[in-house]
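Archive entry. Fields below.
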Amino acid sequence: MPNDIAIAALAHLLGDRLTTSEADRRLHGQNETYYPNTPPDAVAYPETTAEVSAILKICHEHSCPVTAYGAASSLEGQHLALHGGISLDMSRMNRVLGVQSEDLTCVVQPGLTRKQLNENLRATGLFFSVDPGADASIGGMAATRASGTTAVRYGTIRDNVLAVEVVMADGTVIRSGSRARKSATGYDLTHLMIGSEGTLGIITELTLRLHGQPECITAATCRFEDVQQAVACVIATIQCGIPMARIELLDHMMVRGFNAYADAGLPEEPHLFLEFHGAPATVAEQMASFEEIAQDSGARGWKAATTTEDRNALWAMRHNAHYASAALGQGKHIWPTDVCVPISHLAEAIAQSQADALRLNLTATIVGHVGDGNFHAGLSVDPNDVDEMARAHTFTHTLAETALRLGGTVSGEHGIGIGKQDLMATEHGPALTYMRAIKHAFDPQGILNPGKLLPPVTQQEAAE
Amino acid sequence: MPNDIAIAALAHLLGDRLTTSEADRRLHGQNETYYPNTPPDAVAYPETTAEVSAILKICHEHSCPVTAYGAASSLEGQHLALHGGISLDMSRMNRVLGVQSEDLTCVVQPGLTRKQLNENLRATGLFFSVDPGADASIGGMAATRASGTTAVRYGTIRDNVLAVEVVMADGTVIRSGSRARKSATGYDLTHLMIGSEGTLGIITELTLRLHGQPECITAATCRFEDVQQAVACVIATIQCGIPMARIELLDHMMVRGFNAYADAGLPEEPHLFLEFHGAPATVAEQMASFEEIAQDSGARGWKAATTTEDRNALWAMRHNAHYASAALGQGKHIWPTDVCVPISHLAEAIAQSQADALRLNLTATIVGHVGDGNFHAGLSVDPNDVDEMARAHTFTHTLAETALRLGGTVSGEHGIGIGKQDLMATEHGPALTYMRAIKHAFDPQGILNPGKLLPPVTQQEAAE
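PREDICTED_STRUCTURE:
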């Protein structure tokens, strides 16, 4: 085996925290979506930054691939050890290293999940805002540039990471950023690492921005005759500057999924799920402004969820969209895909994707963080049905091309991973050359998550 | 002359838009601060991206330095052609290429200034929020990672640039980002370019986020017995989550400067200048919450500025801080410096800098975007007074080291430029190696703004 020497050296370093058992390898080869199980050659469980550094030194020396593993909730296969080698399981580096309440910051290890962090913060009156639905690890969220339902108000993970400690391919440990809110000193390596999908370095520590728990939180739902009306309402809301904390669109198929999965009993029409944060008079004013816009847009069935229980139930339902889609697909796998477009083109992009699903005879739900112009389609697929998989591929790539045509991007938050590499050249053109140059400068051996994010070099590129 | 061949080729390309006149060269060698006039060998006035590309191809071929020039308002000498070559004056690329009101975005050329942009946007009900005081060019603001008084609410330039077109060192034109609010596709070259001070590429187009004009804007001022009280008020305000649009601290010396420069008639005590944005009830609620905190912190002399005239007068005064400092220094040059610290350490950092100024017998004003933990000191210096310049150097470097000791950064918004290179290794440690690797990969000849941002390679680094 090509990685045997590296694995032997790692076993010497880590003892029983380096495993090659079939069960552990298969566990680390699993994913939430349609990719086949892809086991690594071995799984390493580092406990300190120094250990991560030592692991990378060994892997660098022996050209052994290293793929970071957080909570395995990535949706484009980012955590799968596609070229074998080591799955670097960060779950034992899951401590909160410090909370600086006065500064609204905290320092955490990457294996901590967002729910663990918020549990830990409960007594402080502060919270970590980024909420992609899954209980993702903070390191994984940073590596894949996660966002989610609250990004429209509090920003994506990109806006909420102030600093990182990163172990580079050869084991060098660097720090980028500080606990200060902003800096103008040098190249922005922090944001270069965020979204690099573990291909430029392994994040071993993060300094995060926190937010004060709002004095008042109110959620609400309403529904519309068609998606166009719902999107018109969203556009008007954003344009009026109402600082929505959440504004989520569910199409009629997604609502049908919730009815199938959780007996939600909702009319099968497009819905908006909303949340307002602030001081009491501020929230009241925001809700009144929104209601006025919603009525003008044809909304009906306005329901406020003022108690914590009602609110939690609403968002728990929303966060089960993946499983509700699966329920609708009668237990098939879900192929989740996402795009992001300028909000003025949102209705067109959604209509196009609904028409494409019909044309391709696919069951698809649509749900989106529409305040950002970002939406997901969840396709029900049987990975063994070659024809259906081909149609799903056509759907996702048509949707991506639609997003690009409308001035958007092929992914707002799921990333590139394995699934969208063939769209990188289309989206980025000559900029791809400079991404490759960074990868080569930072990881000349190509040991960090090989086979992800950057597409293979084409013959034309190789000839240049 | 080493750059004669390149200049001859550029003259052929640009005709009379390439000048070598003494007057034009000296004009482009000026700066707002204490650096001596540093004329380039020639000044080029491109009008299109294609011309910028052609210019860089020529300069790349002949290893001729190229330094971008916007509005010359940078404060660490970023626009000075330190190693000669071409000053690339972007002032003729100053058009608004499009405003997408529905999306709250616009596309502009880099030579446009922020005031020109906001003038252009007036009829749309939208505005561009980043306000560093000077009427800087948008390209220059992006290149130096500018922020300013409104960053506490609307973010720095980093948060307000969605996409860039950049001409790379060899003339290749790339695009990074899109009009979509967010993306998770590939390395974040947009944020790598922002703050790179023209050393990685020349920004030729920017897609910006805009914000809706708030329905209601109210400004106010209050004063405190000492800086500690004022900062305690700021910390409590930020912790309570009051979304301040502006919260600026002026120390007693800065107030004395305003009295000297503009006959402001203010009591010579630390002041806060404030602004609240939002819907009417929201602003009223914010102001009431702030007043309560301010009173608890010992504030007095509360004055609201509700009319547009009063508000404009207040911020015009604030924006003249540089000239007010000069007035206090009786016409001396101003050596402006800035740092940013976690807000919990702000009072300590300011007290330390006031003590340092006294100890070093320097006249210093302090003014800051304190909601971000960012503040400026303006030192009155005579560039011909070797001893005073040495003391000013000691002051700025002591302040920078204080900021680092307190978990902050050596610059929140002025950047590195010429003046702070010797602090890069201290702030960034081993990360500096990776910054150099990017520079080398993107600009192997080192033609882009040589002598800025990255310090010269040390003997130790060279030996490695």
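CURATOR_NOTE: Chain B touches chain A through 97 residues (CB under 8 Å).
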